[in-house]
Amino acid sequence: MNQAHEKTPSKLTLLAILSALMAFTSLSIDIYLPAMPAMQSDLQGHVELTITSFLIGFSIAQLIWGPISDRIGRKKPLFIGMVLFVIGSVGCALSQTIDQIIFWRVFQALGACTAPMLARAMVRDLYQRIEAAQMLSTLMLIMAVAPILGPLIGGQILKLSSWHVIFWLLAVIGMIMFVCIFRLPETHNPKIQQQDQPIKHAFLNYGALLKNWQFMRYVLALTAFYVAAYTFIVGSPLVYISYYHIDSQHYGWLFGLNIMGVMMISLINKKLVRRIALYKLLKWATTVSMCAMLTLVYLFYTQHLNLVHLVIFLLIFFSMNGIVAATSVAAALDIVPQMAGSASALIGSMQYGSGIISSLLLTFGKTNSPEAMIMIMAIFAALSAIVSWVPHREPK
Q1: What are phi and psi of 357, to 5 degrees?
Q2: pTM assigned to the model
Q3: How confident is the model over 46-63, as pLDDT tens digits?
């Protein structure tokens, strides 16, 4: 563990707070998925734009917060982020039109993006390459509860009240997290904050990062994988509910099955990273994901695809996220420890910005069958695997 200049809390406390921060993205999106039909009816607009606008704000804002955190530390941006998140959540709860909620979702994202981005940076501040991968696997194991509970909680709220209450709940969660941040140490080493330089110099880090192929290889592999993953997240409600006629109340359980797979693989990955190099784990995980999706493409075009096949192979694909996310992020950040904040911001921006690509591609290719979803997923799963297998020098 690296030395921090504040006393580090117990590992259990650190795990709990960092996991909650890492879960902010999933919670901010998944909790209101069951409410989207009701919101569509009330607001009379394209409610899917509330996800797109959130991801746009989430992706762009990280690029600003990352260099700032490398200059002023991790905790101050987290505090500011939680305040912005609470204000945005209240704005969403009070919205009466689709334009209003789209605006406040962007505002909400400006704060929410600090949570997972700086949680990753703090892990890199505190832990070295292998330990960081183990810690990220543990965080993914815990944070995976959010995508399971989110839709279930949102569905229960709708039974008792309106969708507005969901956003009031998010505001309360933001306030709780604001208090919890006081328990975190300031992990960024003040000796490398370069306080004598203008802050604009910190933004020049992005140029250096984009030119660093060793770093970008991991980022591109992760981004391509997440384009496929978000294609599933955005496209699966239509496929499961409209095409296969799954009851909307049961959709959450099918969605949660994939998250259980991520949790199981994350648990296994904690042990694998001690024995197998991170880049090798990434190669094989992306290859397994690609093979799963290519199998679905084959089954679809040979007219043998059924719901059981779809559930099984999507489970295989999505479970690999337990390896892909942890190994790619840990390996990438280990290459540029002096720019961990900026690097984490660039990773997060591309990772979550991938959802914008997914939603746009599904809009153009939307059909009443799984075809568009599995084709997009297969293409980007293959791209992720190809990038992972490109030869390059690895650190020992």
Answers
A1: -60, -45
A2: 0.75
A3: 777 888 888 888 888 888
Q: Which two tokens stand for residue 210?
A: 């984009």
Q: Which tens digit of pLDDT belongs to each residue from 194-219?
A: 555 555 666 777 888 888 888 899 99
Residues 6+ apart with CB under 8 A from 317: 228, 232, 289, 292, 293, 377, 381
The answer to whether 348 touches 242, Cβ cutoff 8 Å, is no
Tokens, residue 134: 């183990």
Number of C-beta neighbours around residue 39 at 10 A: 20
- What pLDDT, on the 0 to 100 scale, is given for residue 218? 92
Which structural domains are found in the chain, ordered by start?
11-181+201-389 (1.20.1250.20)
What is the total residue count of the chain?
A: 396
Closest by CA to 100, choosing from 33, 153, 42, is 42
Cβ atoms of 120 and 348 closer than 8 Å: yes
Sign of the four-CA dihedral 145, 149, 151, 157: negative
